[in-house]
Amino acid sequence: MLPDGLTLNLVVRELQATILQGRVERVYQPEKQEIILVIRYSGRSLRLLISSAAESARIHLTTQDKTNPPSPPLFCQILRKYLEGSRLSSIEQENLDRIVRLVFTRLGESGEFQNVVLISEIMGKHSNLILVDAATGLIIDGIKRYSHALSRHREVLPGLPYIPPPPQNRAHLLNLDEEQFVRLLLANHLEKKLEDVLMLTLAGIGRSMAREVVYRAGLDPELRLEFCGEYEL
């Protein structure tokens, strides 16, 4: 099951507290859609797993030691070129969307610091892992390459500008007070179930999270918004 935006927000906070400013020692690609970054921080070597597999895309620390192929795939070779020896200078989540940006800083051949951005997009079958030049915004490579033949919105190919996925345009839950929260909910179609309204209105809320919220509130899972009063909201 893919993590929702709120769960991913907690993962990002954990990573910020444990590996931010760490140095990349090694890059592996044990699976076709999965990489592992070995990051040295505070005297420890930690393993960061990033997957773009359709059914299990995710990002988190791991202690699992996987077998790697005899020769590294092309994407792994590119990551080694740009990331090994660099410092992880930033880890940020896009709003509460399932997009995480990891910025790596290294000293270039010219003696100036250079940044590249590794973007983890966790979106089911559209999940991807894309390396971008921070200065130009151009794609260095992606673990999944595709053209307009597969996506009308964008192409993911080396040398092209990075275009982010379409924004969700949903409210940021962590920035709402109670009055704003209720007003947003009531602006929806009243015939919809409350769990559907939560998903459509609030960034970071997936189906499982919406159902859990309704359950913990002690409400009927089939409850429609039109039957919600002051007590329910």
What report would you give on this structure?
This protein has 233 residues and is α+β, with helices and mostly antiparallel strands. It contains five helices and eleven strands; from the N terminus they run αββββαββββββααβα. The strands form three sheets. The protein has a five-stranded antiparallel sheet with strand order 5-6-7-8-9. A hairpin with a 5-residue loop joins β5 and β6 (99-107). α4 crosses α5 (207-216). The longest helix has 14 residues, at 5-18. It is elongated. The model has no long low-confidence stretch (mean pLDDT 89).
The overall strand count is: 11
Helical content class: 10-25%
Structural class: alpha+beta
Radius of gyration over C-alpha positions, nearest whole angstrom? 20 Å
Tally of structural domains = 2
Taken in chain order, the helices and strands follow as HEEEEHEEEEEEHHEH
Strand content: 25-35%
Helices, by number, come to 5
CATH architecture of the largest domain: Roll
Strand order, largest beta sheet:
5-6-7-8-9
**What's the CATH H-level superfamily name of the largest domain?**
ibrinogen binding protein from staphylococcus aureus domain
CATH class of the largest domain reads Mainly Beta
| Low confidence ranges | none
Q: Could you tell me the mean pLDDT?
A: 89
CATH topology description of the largest domain = ibrinogen binding protein from staphylococcus aureus fold
Q: What is the distance, rounded to the nearest whole angstrom, between the alpha carbons of the first and last residues?
A: 28 Å
Task: Label the overall shape.
Answer: elongated
Largest sheet: 5 strands, antiparallel
